[in-house]
Amino acid sequence: MSDGRISIDIYGDTEGIGIKICNSAQRNAIKVNPRMETTKDNKKHHGYGVRNVKELIEQNEGTIHYVQLSDDMVLCKVLLLKKNEQYIG
Fold first, then answer.
1. CB within 8 Å of 22: residues ≥ 6 apart
2. What is the value of pTM for the model shown?
3. Highest mean pLDDT of the ranges 30-44, 51-65, 73-87
């Protein structure tokens, strides 16, 4: 992988909000690192993002899934369902 790439698609309908994040990786990330923990050198100051996002999604009865699209590309799919006639946010 020479350059990092990321794309984000956000869509909504009457049932909720979906978010798709496609992110480049240096290797088959899901197979090598299924818990998606940080690989950065300074672990004291990195690695909370994925864990915090997952906790927030689950607290709001949403779902998050990772799909390995290729050796160097990972897709993260998030679904947040509508609650009490308002979007979560």
1. 5, 6, 7, 8, 69, 73, 74, 75, 76
2. 0.71
3. 51-65
